[in-house]
Each structure stands twice: as C-alpha cells, then as structure tokens.
Amino acid sequence: MPLVPMRQILDEAAKGGYGVGAFNVNNMEQIQAIMQAAHDTKSPVIIQASRGALKYSKMIYLRNLIAAATEEFPEIPLTMHLDHGNSVETCQQAIELGFTSVMIDGSLAEDGKTINDYAANVAITKKVVEMAHPLGVSVEGELGALGGIEDGHGAGLSTDEVEKHLTNPEEAESFVAETGLDALAVAIGTSHGAYKGSRKDPKTGETLPPLLAMDRIREIHKRMPNCHMVMHGSSSVPKKLVDIINQYGGRMPDAAGVALDDIQEGIRNGVRKINVDTDSRLAMTGAARKVFAETPEKFDPRDWLGPAREAAYEVYVERMNAFGQAGHAGDYEPMTLDDIKSVYCSGGCCCNG
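RE: above sequence
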C-alpha cells in the first residue's frame, strides 16, 4: 500500500470516533517498532519527523525507511508527516521527498522560538495550504503556543506563560475558515518533553499531571464538530518507565506527563491526532540502560538496540489500544494523493469537509 493522505486517516477516525497516534521517529528501530505494533493491533498510523529528527537522520534516510515500512506492511494505512515545519521552504522540501502530510507551525516565527501574531500565522499557514492541497498533501497548523521545547523548537514558555497563550475557540473558528487546513493543533496546557507539570501532590510530594484546559477543546468541537484537532506534547510519561531509567543510573526527578483520561476525553470531543514522542524515548533509554548496567561486557549495538526496540513496541501497542485506533486498519479503501485532490477541489477542509 502506498502512503495515504493524513486527511483520509483523520476523516475515517472521525467517522469511527477514535484517535490516531502520531509517533515521532529518529531511527530505524522506532519505525520497525511502530509498524510491528500497527500490524499486530491492525491500526492505521501516522509516523512523523521533526526538524530535529531530520537534521539527525537526514530526510532522505527517513523517507526510505518509511518506504520500506509500506513494503513490509502493505495492509497498514500509513501517513508520513512533517512535524513542526518552520517555513514554507521546509514544507516544500518535505513534499518533494514524498511526505504525504506537513505541519506548518505558524504559531512561531521561522526561528522556532518567537511567538507569531494571529495575522502572521494565518498568512504562512494559508501559503502552505495553497502549495500542498493541489498536490494532495494534507496540512496541519497550530493556533496558540505550547510549553516546553522539542528538538530545539518551542518558545520555552513557563507554566504561567502557557496559560496566556491557550487556543481561543473563537479565533480557532476563524483560523480554520481563513486557512482551509486539514488539522488544527490546539494549545490547552500540554508541553513538549518529560516535564509537563509543576503541580505536586500535597501528601506524597509526587509531581502530578498538568491541569489541561479541556473546556477549550469542548468549545472548539461545539463550534466546529467536523474539525480534526491535534494534541501535541501528549506523552503520558509513565512512572514505570521513568523508574527504570532512574534504577539504572538515570536522573529524572519530577517527570510528569499528560493523563490518559484527558487524552481520551479529547478524543471524545474531536481530537483525532495525538502526538507521542517522549514515551518511546523513555522506554528505549530505560531498556538500553538496563543492558549496560547488567551486562557491561556487551558492546554490540544490537545487544541494546534490540531491547530498546521491544520496549518502544510495547509503548506503541498500549497507545494504539488506548486511542481506539486498534482494529481499524482494514475499515476503508486507502486513497492516493491524486484521489484526495478531488476533496480539495470541492472546497473541503477540516471544518466543513
């Protein structure tokens, strides 16, 4: 099966009332783990690469690894997505290399740090939509600003600053109408990375998940029931994974993630794409540390990359089941980029498609 447009995967998820995990990758082992998990759970899936990942792995290597994934598992609907594209040029390069979906993060300026105003965000997002849709490529945009920094991308906002840059539901409605994008990333208090919360349990002192502005999601869904929302920074940072890292020499105090209940509440209210990166990193790092600590004589990379791949696989299986995408890989006939062009020609976008 060739790569499919993300628009179709999200449209079908909306019909079925489930979410789809979008998993960030940097190397072959992550891609293999994602695809094996998708095969075993019969899940459609989105594999995405940030600019940091593309700098590390190079876009052409990831492109060809994902091409291999479609060849090995032709029954899995798979989208290759650019995460946090910072410019029209970055998105164009990804499209030319075969990405079937791109994100233009117009919430930030091209430096990936400075917060853009609404007008600048609309302008650059619209440019990417006008470039991508005639080619059948899906587009994700972002309104509002998230906390944390991912692969050098992010404003590095504090918890208080994040509160000031949450997505405004009224603006969201205008933003989608003005840009015609396919998916809207919303800022509701999530953050990139493994330290998403500053709240503490008054009795135990443990770090608690962040309080999310779920009312924003519910209001956007009420205004635009057909809009495909995206939750960034949605790793759950399971304590069991952090504990393994710390047990074998790591230092990760106060790590906290997004509560799974909040993600599932979002899915019930129009969230269709859930970005997960940190959880697989934690799993792989813990597995590698365990090998190094327990068998210090080993030096073959396969001795630790193999267990790391298996640990990531377990995370992906858990998320695919939790998001509801499991079992839906065979629900529909996959579209090509040429097929989806007719949707755009008829004026379809995520808010009115």
